[in-house]
From TrEMBL:
Keywords noted in UniProt: Hydrolase
Gene Ontology MF annotations: hydrolase activity
UniProt name for this protein: Glycosyl hydrolase
Keyword Hydrolase annotated: yes
Entry-linked InterPro entries: GH
């Protein structure tokens, strides 16, 4: 019996990586999708490369859009639903932005009127092309687009929080215009939750779009600081799921763990399956989890140069489409009977001020307090400091106990707190 939680994978083509759009081979795609369906997953997330699809602001290549539709149809034949990321954007350490936004034509991705018109038209076009496909889940605006908006990007497109809010509102509306009623959302990397000067904020993540998306990577300092088998590393994905709930205006807004992986060498290949099992089990203990989408489907071919070393081995399947132990872990999890996690009744107070987000980052006092609670056997969630005394809000979420970070004492070595 399949799980009530959706299980899927971010689709990385085994031949040509995302450059496969330049030499689109539907037979190769079908073979990839066969290998994904064979491990019992129910959806994929796919990535059109923006410069390949919209090389000029007023040219959206019909053949590229047709190829995307063919990929979605091939997925349907194998029982796979599809989420489509639009503005690619940034993938595996590389930036893919069209020439009409860079160098001699440098224009801000989030504020320039012409760029906004081009982006909205592009997203609307992709959504409309798929609107009648039953297995089309909806659009994600792009992959971790927030990395363009601030440091450490070497050439950021600076924008204020209000400008980003207007950008999100307009782009999500364009997706809805193209494919009404589908699951349209936006997704950022964890700087949204951890970086004080990020203009993409937790409130936007938790209130804009159909679901909240989180991307969990323990190479952000978590595994370096605590080790691969630590409570923080094995519960990091669950932490982001629960952290996101503090900002939601809906008591039970769904949260999608849209990216999570086992990055070497912090998680060596021989330990990847154990890390995967722990991460998935802990995420499944989070109420209101929409789904888990692993990064990624297939390893990057060693014939391709200049990727960071960890990117070559992140696949559930090898480059020749053979399942790894991590694939079997996800397969077993997807086959388990559905269960509904008990409510998380203890809430840790987190700062509502986006300028204090670093307190929630690895090494921050809120982060550390959360994992001290977890290590002591608690199942905490989070609540904003401005809502900590709002009994109506707490009751709607099933919270019966609120604790501040400075109330969570370290556990004595070798024992438990009295």
């Amino acid at each position: 019996m399949p799980s009530a939680v959706r299980f899927g994978v971010n689709y990385t083509p085994s031949e040509g990586w995302f450059h496969h759009w330049l030499d689109f081979d539907l037979d190769s795609v079908r073979a990839d999708l066969d290998s994904i369906a064979a491990i019992g997953l129910d959806h994929i997330r796919v990535f059109p490369l923006w410069p390949y699809f919209q090389p000029n602001r007023t040219l959206i290549r019909p053949r590229a859009v047709e190829q995307l539709v063919r990929l979605v149809d091939a997925a349907a034949e194998r029982g796979l639903d599809v989420n489509v990321d639009g503005l690619q954007g940034h993938l595996s350490s590389f930036d893919y932005l069209p020439a009409w936004t860079r160098t001699w034509h440098r224009r801000n991705l989030f504020t320039d009127p012409d760029v906004l018109d081009g982006q909205a038209t592009y997203l609307r076009t992709l959504a409309a092309a798929l609107a009648d496909r039953p297995n089309f889940l909806g659009m994600t605006l792009g992959n971790e687009v927030n990395q363009f908006s601030a440091g450490p990007h070497p050439d950021p497109d600076r924008a204020g929080e209000d400008e980003i809010d207007r950008w999100l509102t307009r782009m999500l509306a364009a997706c809805e215009e193209g494919a009404p009623g589908r699951l349209h959302l936006h997704a950022e990397y964890d700087a949204t939750w951890y970086q004080d000067d990020q203009p993409f904020t937790p409130a936007q993540a938790a209130r804009r779009g159909a679901v909240t998306a989180v991307h969990s990577w323990v190479f952000n300092g978590t595994a370096q600081r605590h080790g691969r088998t630590s409570v923080p590393s094995e519960h990091h994905a669950a932490w982001l799921v629960e952290l996101s709930k503090a900002w939601s205006d809906e008591p039970h807004r769904p949260v999608w763990l849209q990216e999570v992986g086992a990055p070497a060498p912090l998680v060596p290949p021989e330990h990847a399956a154990a890390f995967t099992a722990a991460t998935v089990a802990n995420a499944l203990d989070c109420p209101d989890l929409w789904g888990i989408t692993w990064w990624c489907s297939h390893d990057v071919s060693r014939e391709l140069a200049d990727f960071p070393e960890l990117e070559y081995g992140l696949g559930l399947l090898t480059n020749d489409r053979k399942p790894k132990d991590t694939a079997r872990v996800l397969e077993r999890a997807a086959q388990e009977a559905p269960r509904t996690p008990e409510p998380r009744t203890t809430a840790l107070v987190v700062p509502a001020d986006p300028g204090s987000r670093s307190l929630c980052a690895p090494g921050g006092p809120v982060f550390d307090a959360y994992f001290r609670l977890v290590a002591d056997g608690a199942r905490p969630t989070t609540v904003l400091d401005v809502r900590a005394a709002d009994q109506e809000h707490l009751t709607a979420r099933g919270i019966t106990e609120v604790v501040a970070p400075d109330q969570v004492l370290p556990t004595p070595q070798g024992g438990t707190r009295s």
